[in-house]
């Protein structure tokens, strides 16, 4: 077990050989290799890791807005797409436990450029984010605590924008969203998911809303479970694959056929805002684990 800190990143190594790398920029997890040496997350080969742009891949952190706010009267309206947490340099607080191996990062207004904090309301929102990353035998848990360090209430959205590595997107199915309410961002339509398992053959961008916490999303490849995604206090889950045209338009998305090898499953609180009064705290987490059996938790008739 070890923790290495460089100027730009923190690397955790478990005694079983699994490794997680976290860039201080965005506190972005850029890699998680399990004890068998397999990379579990997708990272674009053209991802900017120098702080010039949010990282294309790994686990970018989305706060205090998801996407672009459409309501011009809302205090998050002026913020750029997905907010400012993914493009600010977080403070590394150090190791907080040895078993399981745990580290923490923090972000407060001092670490964020004034140009960005000023776009959230009138720039007066005082917050402390504590991000905890826990590396277990065959799982990775990431947890966020948002504290309103000021006196006035504020509203925010949160999302873990997790990019999973998959061998071939056309062989992949995702379980346990059947009957969930979903907003299709491409059709701008809301409906209930009817597919017994989700499959991918074109651009895909859906927000599954208010999904029971006990429902674990699984990425299954040819009958074998690759990843399990567990959510705590995160009612929503975005599922995204940009496919051919959209990835062609993203300068930092490489290789261009990389969409075949990635799938974003993004646990979040994005359908509605979390309201946090002065002095209050809110905590949420995702837990990613590998393998196991297919768990049928929905009616797939
Ligand atoms: C997803 C959204 O969460 O993030 C997509 O649902 C969006 O609509 C994608 O295209 C990537 O966003 P960005 O800002 O990293 O290019």
From TrEMBL:
Taxonomic superkingdom: Eukaryota
Keywords recorded for this protein, A-Z: Isomerase
Catalytically driven reaction(s): alpha-D-glucose 6-phosphate = beta-D-glucose 6-phosphate
Enzyme Commission identifier(s): 5.1.3.15
Protein family per UniProt: Belongs to the glucose-6-phosphate 1-epimerase family.
Function of the molecule: Catalyzes the interconversion between the alpha and beta anomers from at least three hexose 6-phosphate sugars (Glc6P, Gal6P, and Man6P).
Name of the protein described by the UniProt record: Glucose-6-phosphate 1-epimerase
Lineage: Eukaryota, Fungi, Dikarya, Ascomycota, Saccharomycotina
The species this protein was found in: [Candida] anglica
Pfam families tied to this protein: Aldose_epim (PF01263)
Chain ranges passing through the membrane: none
Keyword presence, Cell membrane: no
């Amino acid at each position: 077990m070890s923790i290495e800190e460089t100027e730009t990143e923190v690397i955790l190594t478990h005694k079983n050989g699994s490794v997680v790398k976290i860039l201080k920029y965005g506190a972005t997890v850029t890699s998680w290799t399990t004890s068998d040496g397999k990379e579990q997350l997708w990272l674009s080969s053209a991802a900017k890791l120098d702080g010039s742009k949010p990282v294309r891949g790994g686990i970018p952190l989305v706060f205090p807005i998801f996407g672009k706010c459409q309501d011009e009267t809302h205090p998050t309206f002026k913020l750029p797409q997905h907010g400012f947490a993914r493009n600010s340099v977080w403070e590394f607080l150090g190791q907080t436990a040895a078993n399981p191996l745990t580290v923490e990062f923090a972000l407060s207004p001092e670490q964020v450029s004034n140009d960005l904090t000023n776009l959230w309301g009138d720039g007066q929102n005082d917050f402390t984010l504590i991000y905890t990353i826990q590396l277990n035998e065959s799982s990775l848990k990431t947890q966020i605590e948002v504290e309103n360090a000021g006196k006035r209430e504020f509203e925010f959205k949160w999302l873990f924008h997790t990019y999973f590595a998959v061998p071939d997107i056309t062989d992949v199915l995702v379980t346990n969203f059947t009957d969930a309410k979903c907003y299709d961002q491409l059709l701008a339509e809301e409906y209930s998911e009817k597919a017994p398992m989700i499959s991918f053959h074109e651009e895909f961008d859906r927000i599954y809303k208010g999904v029971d916490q006990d429902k674990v999303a699984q990425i299954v490849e040819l009958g074998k479970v690759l990843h399990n995604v567990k959510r705590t206090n995160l009612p929503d889950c975005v599922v995204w694959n940009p496919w051919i045209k959209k990835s062609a338009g993203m300068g930092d998305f490489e290789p261009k056929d990389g969409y075949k090898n990635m799938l974003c499953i993004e646990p979040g609180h994005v359908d509605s805002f979390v309201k946090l009064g002065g002095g209050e705290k809110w905590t949420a987490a995702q837990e990613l684990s590998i393998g196991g059996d297919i768990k049928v938790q929905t009616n797939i008739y």
